[in-house]
Design a protein that fits this description.
The chain is an alpha+beta fold. The chain is built from 6 helices and 10 strands. The strands form 3 sheets. It has a 5-stranded antiparallel beta sheet. The chain has a 3-stranded antiparallel beta sheet with strand order 7-5-9, with no helix packed on it. Strands 3-6 form a two-stranded antiparallel sheet. The two termini are 18 Å apart.
Length: 246
Amino acid sequence: MPVLSNEDKSFFKANGYLVKNDTLTKEQIDAAQDALWSGIEADRKDPETWINAGPMAPVPGSHPAIRATMFDSPIFDMAEELVGKGLLNQGGAGPHLRYPSGQPEWSPPEHGHLDGYYTPTNGVPEGTVGRFTIAVTIYVDEVVPHGGGFTVWPGSHLKACEYFKDHSLLSISGGVGKDIGECKEITGPAGTVCFWHGRMFHTGAANSSDRIRMALIARLSRKDMSDILFEEPDDIWESFPALQEV
C-alpha cells in the first residue's frame, strides 16, 4: 500500500525535498542510538563531553541497527514511491553526526553544495563527478532548531537541472552553489526523515544546541545511473517515472 500522497509527491517536485515523521519504531531508534554511542568518543551521561567530540561516523552503515533504519522501516519503499518501483540500488544509510560546537551564537549557512565534486579534503578524485538520484537523511534523535540540522535550498534542484542542460557537470567548482535563494534547516523528533533530490543544494548547519545531531544519510542511485550519467533530458523528471503523472 502506498505511503506517500499525491500532495507529498507534488511538494517534492516543486521543492526538491520532502519531510516525513514517525518513520521508525521506538525499538529501531533505541537500537540505532545504542549503536552510535558504542563508537562515540564521549561520555553518554555527560553532555559537557559532547562538545566538539567525534567521530562523525562512529560505526559503519553496515551495522545491523543502522541498516535496519532503511530496510526494516518504510523509508526505502517511500524513496521508491518517489522514483519508481525496482529502479533504485539498495544503498544503506551511513552515520553523519554533528557535535555541539559550544558556541551559543548561530547563523544560517552561507551556501550549499552538490555532492560528488572534488575538494582537497573530501576524497573525490579531481576531474570526476559522482551523481545519485535521490538521498535520504534520517534523524535517530531529536534535532532542534540551530542544532546542526540538515539544510536544503528549496527549489534549487530545478535551477541545477536547468543549468546542466547547457553546462558541463564539472563546471561547478567544488559543487558549491551561490545565489540559490534562502535555506531551510530541517528539524524534528527522532524518526524524522528528509528525502531530497540528487541535485538539491544542501549542507549541514552549525550546531549551537546542547545535543548531538544524530543523522544517517543514504544516497540512492538508479540501477542504470552509469548509462544516464551525462544525459540531460528536457523533462527533468524522466528519471523519476513515479512523478511524471503528478
